[in-house]
Fold these 2 entries.
Entry 1:
Amino acid sequence: MPTRPQHHDSVDSIADAIIAAVGRRIVLALPLGLGKPNHIVNALVARAMADPGISLTIFTALTLETPALGDGLERRFLEPARERLFGAYPPLTYAAALRDGSLPANIRVDEFFFLAGRWRGVGRAQQNYICANYTDAQRYILDRGVNVVGQLVAKQAGDAGPRYSLGSNPDITPDLLKARAEGRADFMLVGQVNSQMPFMGGESALVEAQEFAHMLDSEATDFELFSAPKRPVSLADQAIGLQVARLVPDGGTLQIGIGAVGDAVAQGLILRQKQNHVFAPLSAALHAGDCEALACEDKPFETGLYGASEMLTDGFLQLEKADVLKREVDGAVLHAAFFLECRDFYTALRTMPEDRRQRFEMRPVSFTNTLYGGVDERRRARTDARFINSAMMVTLLGAVVSDATGDGQVVSGVGGQFDFAEQAFALDGARFIITINAVRTSRGKTVSNIVWSYPHNTIPRHRRDIVVTEYGIADLRGKSDADVIAELISIADSRFQGELLATAKQAGKIAADYEIPAGYRNNTPERIRATLAPARAAGHLPDFPFGTDFTAVEQRLLPALERLKNASASMGSVLRLAWNGARLSAKGSVDQAALERMGLERPSSLKDGLYRWMLAAALHEAAHD
């Protein structure tokens, strides 16, 4: 019997071996996000595209793609920096074929979570989307008769031979291996070694070599991990983060996600710990309501926090470094199921002393996202838990919209959000916190993210708990519909409060004589700016709390380009920017370095001249906002 795993140094060799073992019907399960063995996947897709007799079904989530360059200003911004920002990540051929309609009928891709917004309007992707909790994905994989599981792995030399770690993704594979060991599944595990994948320890992440049937290990197929550049944290995001940081009790348990708001929450907690004289008055100034009922805390952490989060983010590394994340459970300050971050994060994990890296232990999503399989132990560990998740919208009756639009188009997915809501109601002292920006720009117009109703929801209103916007905290748990409506109107943008209140009165859901208290009628961006701008100028609330791959010039361009994107839906806004930009150019009052970065220092056409004027005006407005 050949030694397991059988090693390969070419993709053709491992593809041949897989097809020889399982035949021409391949049901391939791949981890969410970073853990996909791209070269193996592409080799199997190529075989199926060349041979219609091969049936290939791929079950996965969060297919990663480097953003398309687009055209116009977007291309000018991304093209010179694409590889620097996102890494030299080998594209997954099924994604491109699915997007352009060339994926043949004998290849099917089912995903239960999308890269946010990337698959809207792509018919086959939308039709094959599986609406599922993250924790249910393993069951659906087994139901489909999976016969191949593919995984990107880290390798470490050992006395008895190589050791393998599931690295970024022990989210589902350990439970699949358990099912195989118990006779509930029959599949081969194939791996691809990646030198940049951090070697994560713990019994769930470490897999014995003999569990793998085949391993692709070659310098020719090594690649740079996908890098997710950090986005700037706006003042509105910072306001949310500061208020959420007051809701996290010392000695508690924390779950947060990736993105600007996640970074803002981590930054708020660090500010509470390290610069409490700044944090306490600043966070108190943002919420006009009664924080005593919410048991708000603004003192530094003594016992510290323990993390139980489906996702390990850079924010958790920074919290541990700042002595906030320090309450240990089974020797770890954090248990997480997967990670997907920027290149500095991967480097930090790879180069971290092993004893410190072991404090960040990777576990299956069945552990992080549920209480089943160890209820008593997890109850004791997850004291005073705060599950902090972002959403797109919240209705006035408390339903949360996070994953899809009203016409059924999936934006992302449910992921673990519903599981965390369930945990918050099952655990003593736990709360489920939804964060949303009070407004967004849609087709050139400012619209409210707090709405009367919506055709779709992710979290039903009977699981309403806490909602935080930049304007305050709404405590909804156990309250009547009328009280919930009043709470949510109090944290809505004041430009929309009147309309929301009138709709609720018309529906008979709040008293006809109810009035919004005076303290909540000044919910404006200007108030947030006046409250937080001095702290930002003093360096307490940086645009990028934990660093960035963007240069200083690119950091100035980001908010300007966002303004241009929002203005593009309105001809009046476009003309206004062009006129203002022309006036600034005539005065010489332009950001020359930014214009040069975009290749607009000397416009060679009328179109480029218009771009120059518009960008000059947007840069000026962003700098003075």
Entry 2:
Amino acid sequence: MCAAKRSVPPEAEAAELGQEKKAPARRGPRTSGTGTRKAAGKAAIKAEDSTKKAEDSTKKAEGSAKKAKAPTKKAGASEKKAEAPARKTGASSKTRAASAKTGEGTGKTGAAAPARRTRTRASASKASAAKGASGVSGASGKTLVIVESPSKAKTLMGILGSKYVVRSSVGHIRDLPRSRMAIDIEHDFAPEYILVKGKAAIKNELTAMARSASNVLLASDPDREGEAIAWHLAELLGLDLSEKCRVRFYEITANAVRSAVQNPDVVDLNKVDAQQARRILDRLVGYTLSPLLWNKIRYGLSAGRVQSVALDLICEREREIARFVPEEYWSVTVRASASGGRSYEMKVDRWEGKSLWKNGMPLLIKDRATADAILSEVEGHPIRVSEFRLREGKRNPPPPFRTSTLQQEAARRLSMAPKRTMRVAQELYEGLNLPGRGHVGMITYMRTDSLRLSEEAVEACRAYIAGNYDAPYLPKAPRAYAAPGRSQDAHEAVRPTDVSLTPDSLGDILTPDQLRLYDMIWRRFVACQMESAVVANSTLLADAGRAGMRQLGESLIFEGWSAVWPLDLKGNRMDRAEEGEPLDFVSAEKEQKFTRPPARYSEATLIKTLEEDGVGRPSTYATIVDTLFGRGY
């Protein structure tokens, strides 16, 4: 069992007072205590001085009270009762008094100030103790589960039942201070962690509950950042890192949650080290280069390990656009008809047997004179079909979403910024109240680079397809996908937790943004397990004198997976033509065009490029784009 140690660590006392307590870097499974002991020693000396001053002030106050005459015995008794809390407060622990500021340098009122502050501390301490006692009694003999999000805590409480108490750390509870580098470069780049500002009350509550709980489970998100949060919590709560106190929820469903808490694991220190390494690199790059930008350009700019690479990609694209020189070219379109009301619209692509096309455009028709010569040739000679090809091909379904493709498609189809996409996805992952079901997580964990799907999810999806579509829509075998490149494959692709929860059934429950994103995730998941679509690709070649023409057509024969996910066809359906068949000339036109520079990055194309180049991780894409926009880059 992973229970908290009953002894109070030095950091616990300091955290109760909201102090910025330094936390040394991890050295193996435990932390070094040298820096902590020195800091604790200094704090103790200050505590003694502050306590003495507080006691002197209290004695002066008591002396003044004795000089005043009580009108009745009853009043004297009340006065004695009133003195008791002051004496009790004056005798409080030295560490608690260390954070109280003395009244030195405040003039005539300086002597009385400490006594008032002491009484205020006593009241706050009682309130905190009452709150802590309530938390302790609530967790006594139960298993304490600590998650990152308050909304996820509510969801888990409904699933786990009365034997568990679920509390939230509200994200990181320790981090590097924002006001300084906090990396000891001379001593193995050791980071200096402090309690996050405003988290003292949360830390105190978790510490008190951990002491009384029979077991403690750390259930932060199942990624490197979540692993680091679990490690910080284990250090603050005094948990033994060699014991199994880590649980990971890849989806918030009853079966997945219960299975996870019954099979805990140890904190993965390799992932913790990986997160710390990136965090230290980010700090070294950002806090070294950003001041340089302030001095050379303007205040408020920032540089970063990943952010600066993304900005360089954008700048390089802008330089390409600036260097681009447009080239003139002409397009010649010929319209013709045939018996039976068939019509064709062809592009001139050959002249005297040589291709005029380059990079998908007739770039070799360079001027008006060439275009006029081609136009005259077509108008003065009969048009005859030289070849007609028809080929059927299969279009396999797209894979399920991973973080990068989810953000790209949401930007392209829903016009949702990556940050907004991830916020809505987080809401769906943490769960919503569904009538008759309670709190249910709607999708699996949304920060992933994997395309793997669980066997249970695939079987459920195939059962749904079999029950709602004809037999040809279900392939004979389940489809499996592998992520390209250097995928970590830590957990599943992004998918709905229950495929039977169709978007149509949730229209009155989800918010508009939640419904649109869930609909996209649900459709992509169902489509990835359906039969391939069958497409007919047709090619028509015709000649008119020295000019050659071509038309491409594309039509859908069997929709397959495109019944739930849109299939983008590049051409229109084209009627069949016979080789040697004459075509009647209808019209011809020429159009002057110019080549265009490469397009500027959109949010979707930037994320795609970052992934292809191996820049950043799925969890950083939204932050990178948001930072670049927010700082006006």
